[in-house]
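User: Okay, second chain of the day. Same drill as before: sequence in, structure tokens out.
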Amino acid sequence: MAQYPYQQYTPQPYWYQNQPTPPAQQANSSIVWIQGGLNAAKNYHVAPNESIPLWDQEEQVIYLKSADASGMPTIKILDYTIRETQPQIQNEANFATKDDLAEIKAEIAKLTESLNYRTKQRKEYQRNE
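Assistant: Same drill. Structure tokens below.
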């Protein structure tokens, strides 16, 4: 009997074919801590077309190091502060009351009447000329 270098095809059972595929591995999203300030950030290698935040362990600074397509790095320095308390939100509502709206309506009526009176005077003046 001749031996063939190929394996014989064996179909997989139905239950094996419908197994879910394992999820793709996600990128490591852990925080990168550095010591040594700006010099340590400058020495940290970043791949081309990548950006990475580098958290300083000694100061409240984040160095955002990026590299363009050619691998030329740039660094942006971000200072951060920790808030001890949440800011107070003022709940004072600045709404107009019915009386305020009535006053505004009366003032608009006066202005409209004055405008109409002046327009009427101008037309009479132009007729008399």
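The first strand starts at residue 32 and ends at 34.

User: Thanks, on to the next one.
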